[in-house]
Design brief:
mainly alpha; 5 strands; 52% helix
């Protein structure tokens, strides 16, 4: 069996401003992964148009793409070490996605829970692109023959589909090792950051209340105010993990402190257990400000020069195509396309 060289691929949509959950759940881990194997980090702007997100004006999508790129770099993704690009500049993604439209099966897509969650009772109004989103995601990964993908729990099913697509293509063309079966990567604690207003819901860019999240662009006063106003309960912090039962907001704030300070939840409870939330929130606010405001400042600096961001993306796209184009040539030869 042929071993594929280790390679990481991951990306985020340029939809609204990135927030604390994006940083702790993804970006912070991406930075660490740069020390472990070659990485490609993509701004998935083609995925961004699968829903009615409001990006119906080209300037809005372009601005959002640059802002997310700035967030990647400000958080520590190094365009010199990793390949940083936006998806639409590498046409091989769309080419391979069409082929995977013909490899994948309707039954597989019908089982995708995220499509059902996003469309609810209005499935017939959804775009075809939203329905076939997982096939484009498979193409994003396999057009580079990436072997590892950092994913959150909400994307794990899509990664499983990518493995199914790779396996079926390999089987259909009797080439068992053509595409690797990409593996999920969980780095550190795999922090799942919840809403500051409702500890049972994931922190989201689409939540109507800006107080539900800490944006990476928030200033010092805004960060502190959002943490002070974060929902808790009247009881002191628990002294061990069992004390979180029925207290999702308390658990969320402790998890955030642990992730920002690179310590365990147990360490946080050893320090703050039994103390009041008002005191804990003050320390959490100081920590969040110390960790996040340098990122916001660097983002603002980068965004003053959009031409430089565009240059970084174009350079990354050229490097990405250097990997993707030969693989697409192989795919076409395998299928029997002439030319």
């Amino acid at each position: 069996m042929t071993a594929h060289p280790n390679l990481i691929l991951s990306g985020m949509q340029p939809t609204n401003t990135l927030h604390l959950g994006n940083y702790l759940g993804a970006l912070k881990n991406w930075v660490k992964l740069q020390d472990e194997m070659p990485c490609l980090y993509c701004v998935v702007d083609m995925h961004a148009i699968t829903q009615d997100t409001g990006y119906r004006h080209p300037k809005e999508l372009a601005a959002a793409t640059r802002e997310v790129t700035a967030a990647y770099i400000a958080a520590g993704v190094d365009p010199g070490r990793s390949i940083l690009f936006n998806q639409s500049q590498v046409p091989e993604h769309a080419e391979l996605a069409w082929i995977f439209n013909c490899v994948g099966r309707l039954g597989w897509l019908d089982r995708m829970t995220q499509f059902k969650e996003k469309t609810g009772k209005h499935k017939e109004r959804a775009s075809v692109g939203l329905y076939t989103y997982p096939l484009l995601m498979a193409a994003d990964i396999l057009v580079y023959k990436a072997t590892h993908v950092p994913v959150g729990e909400d994307q794990r099913q899509h990664l499983e589909l990518s493995r199914d697509i790779a396996q079926k293509f390999n089987s259909d063309y009797d080439l068992p090792d053509f595409f690797p079966l990409p593996e999920p990567v969980i780095v550190g604690t795999g922090t799942r950051v919840m809403s500051l207003r409702d500890g049972t819901k994931k922190m989201s860019k689409s939540d109507e209340s800006d107080y539900s999240r800490i944006n990476l662009t928030d200033d010092v006063d805004t960060i502190a105010q959002k943490i002070r106003k974060a929902r808790t309960d009247p009881n002191p912090l628990p002294e061990n993990g069992k004390g979180f039962e029925g207290r999702p907001e308390a658990e969320n704030l402790v998890n955030i402190y642990a992730a920002l300070s690179d310590t365990s939840r147990g360490d946080v409870l050893a320090k703050f257990g039994g103390r009041q939330f008002s005191e804990f929130k003050n320390e959490l606010a100081e920590l969040a400000v110390a960790k996040l405001t340098p990122i916001a400042a660097e983002m603002r600096r980068l965004l003053t020069d959009p031409a430089e961001i565009d240059r970084i993306l174009a350079n990354g796209a050229e490097r990405a195509r250097g990997i993707a184009a030969p693989i697409m040539t192989e795919v076409k030869q395998v299928i029997g396309f002439v030319g």
